[in-house]
Amino acid sequence: MKFLLLLFMLLAPLFAASNTSSEYDILPRTINFLIFLAIMFYLLAKPIKAMYNARVQKIANRLEDIQKRVLESKNKRLEAVKRLEDAKKEADNAIALAHKEAELMASKIKNDLKNDISILEKTYEEQQKYELRKMQKDVVSSTLSQIFDDSLLKQDDVLNIMLKKVS
Questions:
Q1: The model's pTM
Q2: pLDDT band of 146, cuts 50, 70, 90
Q3: Taking Cα atoms as reference points, which of 32, 28, 37, 30 lies closest to residue 9?
Q4: How far apart are the first and last CA of the chain?
């Protein structure tokens, strides 16, 4: 490459300096243009390649970063879906547990109510018996008081009657 560049540099003045009678100087101008292009290519090829490679590397890095983000977002999405499924399972379990607890509480309340009702019934029966005995005592007491007040029995007579009943 350096050899071609040196050759073009040496030949360029010959073509440029030739003063021919013809009006056509297209060949020397074309050679000069090609030499100019070769020099520009020689001088600018490495920086342009470096810029191009840097740009390609930058794009590759960005693409790799984007792919990492996509992979992370997919992983996060899968985690979120898994957590959602776990939450649904936990919710179902909680609902089932709540139903069981509600049934247990209902049966406990039902048993407590049955016990309370039986206690109330027993209390009612005892109260009824007590009131019956009380009424009997009142009737007996009032009857005896009427008998004793009306007949005005003496105490000795009452004792005799009682002794006769006992024996």
A1: 0.42
A2: confident
A3: 32
A4: 159
Q: Distance between CA atoms of 108 and 114, rounded to whole angstroms?
A: 10
pLDDT at residue 108, as a whole number: 95
CA angle 29, 32, 34 (to 5 degrees): 110
Distances (CA, A) of 110 to 100, 102, 105, 115, 122: 15, 12, 8, 9, 18
Distance CA 138, CA 141 (A): 5
Classify residue 116 as left (phi > 0), alpha (psi -120 to 50) or beta.
Answer: alpha
d(CA 16, CA 33): 11
Neighbour-count burial of 94, counting CB atoms closer than 10 A to its CB (0-12 exposed, 13-18 middle, 19+ buried): exposed
